Amino acid sequence: QICLSLVKLLFYLAHSPLGSIVLLDFQPRQFVMVDGNLKVTDMDDASTEELSCKEDNDCTLDFPTKSFPLKCSVAGKCEGINEKKNLFNAYRYFFTYLLPHSAPSALRPFLTDILNATGDLRYGINETLKAFEKVLHLYKSGLYLQKRPLHLKDYTSLKGFRVVEGEDYKCWPSYSHLGCLLSVHSAEEAARICNSQSQCRSFIITQQRTWTGRSLASFRSSPTDLIPDANAVVYIKRSTSSG
Fold first, then answer.
1. Which PANTHER family does the record associate with it (predicted)?
2. Each residue's pLDDT tens digit, 138-185
3. What architecture is domain 1-144?
4. What is the DSSP letter of 164?
């Protein structure tokens, strides 16, 4: 969410009415999340000036660990230097820390491609935004889920009950520090996750939703602590529900 919001912000800066805007003091502390969107807190160090040049050799974009040769336009400006500077800083300070983690395994190759392409500046901001939106579409739609043997058949569903809330086994990346609370596209995906965790014996799809509209599922090690709830369904592994 943070990376996608940042890319949308940089897309706007690259195509702003004032021209391409560069953030000269690009640090994580310069940003804040407001209602799920990343905002810049300080525009004092923003600039629309692009480096002047006479030849391509005048247009090297230097960072502590990498340098990128750019083209000198016929107008005597280094082409896209503001956009590329913003994008590589996004890679340095955000993408490298946030993208490799917590995504479903089927989506990680797409995120790795984004990481590598922005790290080498092979993608501009337009291509980067399209790549992020493709991953988001796959994630929200569930199209990333590969056709595999059905896991939900291993579970008995109990309608009208839910599991008593409380501490249980932990998992990563959980939305709750008290137990294992993960986002899922469907009960089938939740069943696959439960089957992959040795402690899991049951799960419930909660009424909570993430920013992408996906449901949160609570995974439990014990299916025995049930209380009535007309709007809930508990899924219990058949091997533990036979009694």
1. PROTEIN KINASE DOMAIN-CONTAINING PROTEIN (PTHR46448:SF2)
2. 999 988 887 777 888 999 998 888 877 778 899 988 888 889 999 999
3. Orthogonal Bundle (1.10)
4. P
